[in-house]
Design a protein that fits this description.
YerB-like fold, 2 domains, twelve-stranded mixed β-sheet, alpha+beta, 24 strands, single chain, five-stranded antiparallel β-sheet, 347 residues, 6 helices
């Protein structure tokens, strides 16, 4: 071996030894290289997995936000609503008579505006309590007022904060014009010393992706019926996005805030016992019993049950939480014995 080659080899071995001493680099083998050849070095790149939002199963920058639950007006004059496209979960629940209201849950993100905000019912508050959510409403029934006054949940209500945290839109008439902004939600939580970080993680379970949800009866079109067509929901499965386009009485559900369609990845129709309790048609609702349910996801239907697990409404299959497709979930809480009479689906 000539002198040039010896010197070159010695220098190269010295460089390799230095690399091997670095904790941030991958070790390279010590090899002789002929003069004029190049050496490729490989650096290790550390990847950090994104956290998963506990109510949507989606990757997010932070999963630490305290859940926020808002009562959203579902009267035809309140549509299109703002903030629904960004909700992790939406519950559609009867409020009085045949009128339904929406409970929109936000944990992975808060939209710039939510509303119109409407009044509370006692079982809305029970849902918020089970979620350990910061609850937002404008108004209340007598039973709901008693629970709020007793401090059952952290909350703000437009009856006390109309014109401050809650703002009236000039585009609509009361009671369809009360809105709350992300800025005002955050300000209220700070002013009232409300915990802003999640304290209870739900037992919801998720598939890694939509294609993993393959088992079930084919169901590409779903109709959740109602005596009033203004509250009948139709869902059409989009095989490309693996989500459902929602429409009511032929009108596609869109978000007034960002002009996006509301496209849930999961739809759960579940039976629960409602009882009419006064002349106004207000309802009571028992959400502790559990009952039958149908889960729609990735174009198929699964017949299963629902239960409250640690206070959270959860679809259950074979005794364990059923896996949801990552994305928004829409719960329809219908009357007992109603699934077979109101919900239809076709291939």
């Amino acid at each position: 071996m000539n002198v040039t080659k010896v010197l070159f080899t010695a220098l190269l071995v010295g460089q390799v030894l230095l690399v091997g001493c670095s904790k941030d680099k991958e070790e390279l083998p010590q090899t002789e290289v002929e003069a004029g050849e190049t050496v490729e070095t490989v650096e290790t790149v550390e990847t950090i997995a994104q956290p998963t939002a506990p109510f949507s199963g989606m990757a997010v920058e932070s999963a630490d936000l305290r859940p926020i639950l808002a009562t959203v007006n579902n009267h035809p004059l309140a549509r299109p609503q703002s903030g629904l496209s960004q909700a992790d979960v939406v519950y559609e629940v009867f409020a009085e008579g045949n009128i339904t209201r929406l409970l929109a849950l936000y944990q992975s993100q808060i939209p710039e505006e939510i509303g119109p905000i409407r009044s509370a019912r006692d079982y809305f508050i029970e849902i918020a309590d089970g979620l350990d959510a910061f609850y937002i409403a404008h108004g209340y029934s007598p039973d709901a007022h008693a629970l709020l006054t007793a401090g059952m949940v952290d909350n703000i209500n437009g009856m006390q904060y109309d014109g401050t945290y809650f703002v009236r839109s000039k585009e609509r008439k009361a009671p369809h014009n009360s809105y709350i902004s992300k800025e005002h939600i955050e300000q209220a939580m700070e002013d009232l010393s409300i915990d802003t970080e999640i304290r209870e993680v739900p037992a919801l379970s998720f598939h890694p992706d939509a294609d993993s949800a393959k088992l079930g009866e084919i169901a590409s079109t779903i109709v959740v019926g109602h005596p009033d067509p203004n509250f009948t929901s139709t869902y059409t499965f989009d095989a490309e996005t693996k989500t459902y386009e929602r429409s009511v009485n032929g009108i596609i559900t869109t978000d007034k805030g960002d002009d996006k369609k509301v496209t849930p990845a999961n739809i759960v129709v579940m039976e629960a016992p409602y009882t009419t309790i006064d002349a106004e048609g207000r309802q009571s609702l028992d959400l502790t019993k559990g009952g039958p349910a149908i889960l729609f996801q990735n174009g198929v239907a699964l017949t299963l049950e629902w239960k409250q697990i640690d206070g959270v409404i959860t679809p259950v299959q074979n005794g364990v939480p059923a896996k949801l497709v990552p994305g928004q979930t829409w719960f329809h809480i219908v009357h007992e014995q109603a699934i077979g009479n109101t919900t239809t689906y076709t291939p």
